[in-house]
Design brief:
Elements (H helix, E strand, L loop, with lengths): L7 H9 L10 H8 L2 H28 L8 H5 L2 H12 L3 H10 L14
Helix pairs in contact: 2-3, 3-5, 3-6
């Protein structure tokens, strides 16, 4: 049985103390980091995709433990742990919010390709 309290992603999100709801951000702050607002948006979007993929893989691995070859009426009716895991992931901040916070805190590494390279 999976232990949802020991989830790496869950603990990481708790440490950051992110709100699961969106907040208004100052565009000047986002622009200052990369020098270009659109570049900042691309970097945050790519990071959000990475986080989303990690969360999806983690959730799939946890839920795969509940998969069975044959359906039992008791298992189909209700699986409390599976519901708790799903509810936990629903309460977590969205990947875009996490990526934005990481970007603003300087935890995202990005670089532009060198123009001399071809």
């Amino acid at each position: 049985m999976p232990n949802i309290k020991n989830s790496i992603k869950f603990n990481k999100m708790k440490e950051q103390k992110l709100s699961p709801s969106a907040e208004a951000r100052n565009l000047k702050d986002l622009e200052e980091i990369s020098g270009n607002l659109y570049l900042s948006a691309v970097v945050m979007a790519k990071r959000a995709n990475q986080i989303s993929q990690q969360m999806k893989e983690e959730l799939s691995s946890k839920l795969s433990e509940f998969a069975s070859d044959h359906d039992n009426l008791e298992e189909v009716h209700e699986n409390r742990e599976q519901i708790e895991i799903s509810a936990m992931y629903e309460k977590m901040p969205k990947p875009t919010l996490v990526a934005t916070q990481e970007f603003l805190n300087g935890k995202v590494y990005f670089r532009l390709p060198d123009e001399t390279e071809g």
